[in-house]
Design goal:
This protein has six helices and eight strands; from the N terminus they run E-H-E-E-E-E-H-E-H-H-E-E-H-H. It is an alpha+beta fold. It has a domain of 103 residues: Alpha-Beta Plaits, CATH 3.30.70. A four-stranded antiparallel sheet has the order 4-5-1-6, with helices on one face. The protein is elongated and about 85 Å long. It starts with 10 loop residues before the first strand and ends with a helix. About 6% of the residues have low confidence.
Length: 217
């Protein structure tokens, strides 16, 4: 743990209203290390008060009345990767009230305007899949007795993300852009081809035009 100010671009952070005991801090770091995908957790190089090089694996910061325990990452985590970490830590520390956040990475409007049409279609598909996954997750949680709450609480079964897709913070509405491509690759490997409806219509129009222009036998 280190209080030295660092600029960490990607992270997962545990927030509590009271400072954690050493055991709970160790549990948090080990939980992220074990549950997060392999190679995602990283140590950050810095220097101590005497200028000697060192590495930091976890950073403790205070933000108002909150204590924040930040674990540096090599990349952003998807919602599906954060959820198991939250669940596992709740099991390890069942009496602790906490919430978890990651760094906020926004896809601004100009990014959509600058990408090719095919990519824009892909992003739209990814967003639709992410929304459907969130709705399925909400339904499963609600059926299990969970409800919306400003804090994640295992005992009270409250979760701050149990709300409609359009009401989620921007960082939780980032689509998994690799999932559709993975599915397409799987279909292609089994001999299937997937076309957007507009592309299919254009192809059919060409075939019709070709048949019309062909001289009668």
């Amino acid at each position: 743990m280190d209080d030295h100010p660092l600029d960490i671009a990607r992270y997962i952070q545990l927030n509590t209203t009271k400072a954690l005991r050493r055991r709970a801090i160790i549990d948090w770091y080990s939980c992220v290390l074990r549950v997060a995908p392999s190679g995602v957790v990283q140590a950050v190089p810095t220097t101590d008060d005497k200028g000697r090089p060192r590495t930091v694996q976890l950073v403790h910061r205070k933000a108002g009345k909150q204590h924040c325990y930040l674990v540096p990452l090599t990349r952003d985590l998807r919602d599906a990767e954060v959820e198991p970490i939250v669940q596992r830590y709740a099991e390890m520390q069942p009496k602790l009230n906490f919430d978890v956040e990651t760094n906020e990475t926004k896809l601004v409007a100009k990014d959509y305007g600058e990408i090719p049409l095919d990519s824009a279609k892909h992003v739209a598909l990814c967003m639709a899949l992410a929304k459907q996954q969130h709705e399925d997750w909400m339904r499963e949680r609600s059926d299990a007795g969970w409800r919306y709450g400003t804090k994640f609480d295992q005992r009270a079964k409250t979760h701050p993300l149990l709300r409609p897709w359009d009401q989620l913070p921007d960082r939780y509405r980032k689509p998994n852009v690799s999932l559709p491509q993975t599915l397409l690759n799987l279909l292609n490997s089994h001999g299937y081809a997937v076309l957007h409806r507009e592309d299919l219509d254009r192809l059919l129009d060409r075939l019709r035009t070709s048949d019309t222009a062909r001289p009668a036998a």
